[in-house]
Amino acid sequence: MAGLAGLALEKGHKVTGQDKAYYPPMSDQLDQLGIKQNKTEEITEDLKKCDAVIISNSQSRGIKSVEYVLNNNLKYFSGPEWIKKYILNDKFVFVISGTHGKTTTTSMLIKILQESKLNPSYLLGGVYLEEKISYKFTNSKYFIIEGDEYDTSFFDKRSKFVHYKPNTLVINNLEYDHSDIFENIIQIQKQFHFLIRSMPGNSNIIYDDSDENVKKIILMGCWSKKNIYKKVDKIENIIGDHNLKNCGAAIAAAETIGISRENSTKALEKFLGVKRRLERIKSKNFILYDDFAHHPTAIAASIKALKEKHKKGKINAFFEISSNSMIEGTHKDNFLHSFSDADNIFIYCKKDVAWLKAIPSIDLYKDIDLVINKIKSSTENVDIVILMSNGDTTHIINKLK
């Protein structure tokens, strides 16, 4: 929503926002843009005076500000609906989707088009490190957007990406996630197929045919041009097999508008990465990485990537359980195995997690200072620390540093 707010500002609108809380890096971005952040769900003067309201999927019925919008018949949109109508309507749209790697692949494709002097507009769910922002609006015909499978809003239960009308769609991979809104993977596959059914015959779908869950979506019916991507063998500054797969997807997407694999590879050799996606943080005592991983597959991929890069280093993995799927135990069967390449594991959660009690040799910490002190006091056994959380890690980084 912070990126969307920035796009609205660039379109000439006066923008304010309200929510019960704001977190870095998006709160920092709003501060830099001078966008007022009302930290409340109550009815504000800004709400009373506005011309239109964009309602995110974090808002639900019963919240006073939401009820005010409905009771007073204010003009309102979901975020994806507003983007489709006012941002994407005259653009060639790249949509990057999948359970893992959306933000990284989106950023890679941005870099490729920028190096080809195409100056794309973009919107992603993280911060593009090169420009230290999550959005950009330009005069370019190309727009690159991260396609989230999460639902759109309380009044539109379709996945967000259904609204984006891609000319080129990337489906990176597919696993079961978001158990708070999807009962099984079949429901997620249906959402992907709703999107594919709306795409014209001259559009492109980039996908990995070794991913059985993705193949099932394609077999449900596909009328667009199909393009299979493969993992890139090596790019010097890219670490991890999962990121080399992301490279392959971005390169294949760029090929649909005539950018050669050679030029795309040269662009990716200059790629700086994405904030909070295996981001290296300056630290005196040990090598520190900040990562958004919150699914067993992503956890395992990130730790494996560090093990391959730092072959002799001892890896200490800090993981915060905060996603709805993790708290509910959706991924409990694969949870412990995902840390198999780590030397030490520190699991932190503010809530009681009943399913963890059945897993031996796991210590669950509720006191963040206790975890941090344990990591800091055992520097002889700590070479690399990776923080993994889909929440705000700023305070944890500051304490570790």
Architecture overview:
- The chain contains 15 helices and 19 strands.
- With 401 residues, it is of the alpha/beta class.
- It folds into three domains: 2-74, Rossmann fold (3-Layer(aba) Sandwich); 86-268, Mur-like, catalytic domain (UDP-N-acetylmuramoyl-L-alanine:D-glutamate ligase, 3-Layer(aba) Sandwich), CATH 3.40.1190; 279-400, Mur ligase, C-terminal domain (Protein-Tyrosine Phosphatase, Chain A).
- The strands form five sheets. Strands 7-6-8-5-11-12-13 form a seven-stranded mixed beta sheet, with helices on both faces. A six-stranded mixed beta sheet has the order 14-15-19-16-17-18.
- A hairpin with a 5-residue loop joins strand 14 and strand 15 (287-291).
- Helix 9 (241-255) crosses helix 10 (261-268).
- The chain starts with a helix and ends with a helix.
- The model has no long low-confidence stretch (mean pLDDT 93).
Distance between the termini: 30 Å
Q: What gyration radius follows from the Cα positions, in whole Å? A: 21 Å
Strand proportion, as a percent range, falls in 15-25%
What name does the CATH topology of the largest domain carry? Answer: UDP-N-acetylmuramoyl-L-alanine:D-glutamate ligase
CATH superfamily of the largest domain: Mur-like, catalytic domain
Q: Write down the CATH class of the largest domain.
A: Alpha Beta
Helix content range: 25-40%
CATH architecture of the largest domain: 3-Layer(aba) Sandwich
Number of domains: 3
User: What's the total count of β strands?
Assistant: 19
Which residue ranges are poorly predicted, with pLDDT under 50 across at least 5 consecutive positions?
none
In which order are the strands of the major sheet placed?
7-6-8-5-11-12-13
**How would a textbook summarize the main sheet?**
7 strands, mixed
Count of discrete alpha- or pi-helical segments spanning 4 or more residues: 15
The secondary-structure class comes to alpha/beta
Shape: globular
Average pLDDT confidence is: 93
